[in-house]
Request: fold
Amino acid sequence: MEITFSFGKNWQKFLKNLNEERFKNAEKSLTQFMELETFEGKTFLDIGCGSGLFSYAAFNLGADKVVSLDFDPFSVECCKHLHEKVNKPKNWEIYQGSILDKKFVSKLNKFDIVYSWGVLHHTGKMWQAIKNAACLVNKDGYYYISIYNKIEGRKGSEFWLIIKKIYNHSPRIGKLVMEMLYILRYEIIGNLISLRNPLTIINEYKARRGMEWKTDIVDWLGGLPYEFAKVDEIFKFMKVNFTDFDLVNIKTTDSLGTNWFLFKNKGHGLIKDLS
Reply:
């Protein structure tokens, strides 16, 4: 898998803004959606760990074991930085690798919680990535993913795929101009038209999973590869390939954002072949 946009370099900037409030918000986004108060007694796999924020959250929530992996070496370094923050615990392991790499994936154990938020649609082979990740879920384990929603039409998903390609092929000054235009059009004018205070939206952004407003904008504009799916396409794929997985929670959007899915593996009806 070729890196066309380094999320890790972007996350390195994000690390400077991390504080206790962001850590707590990240923990809430895990526990509230999963309806779990603690991760004690559970193993946690973070696929596409990025900044390492959610691996850190899982560790703080008492997970027996945390495994973080990312294809981007800069993301791996970000995660190691947070690992060092808690004195390099032995029950938190960090690896560089791709969820598409069959040899790498085959060496991983199964986990009670497999978490991949906003990652699998950036692999270039989204459906294979979803399958490979799901095969790592233990019996009675949880599969928590978010996937970009597919929007059709003039300014839908295909339009934004073009924008992302332009952004990635632009010089630094071109990227800055595109970021400023996006902020003006969507974050300022868009919110004012909707009678929302842009400053309030920006200031409260960290309450959403503990993330950072500007970092996510750069991720959105630059994030390639970029794939997407409708909710019913995800349902159909899981029903065909993972018959024992039941949907236990969902958060949908009618925008270009992500749909959140939480499945639980009630049995052993998994496809073993990662091909």
The longest helix spans residues 172-193. The beta strands are 43-47, 65-70, 92-96, 111-117, 137-148, 245-251, 258-265. The two ends are 15 Å apart (CA to CA). The chain is about 45% helix and 20% strand.
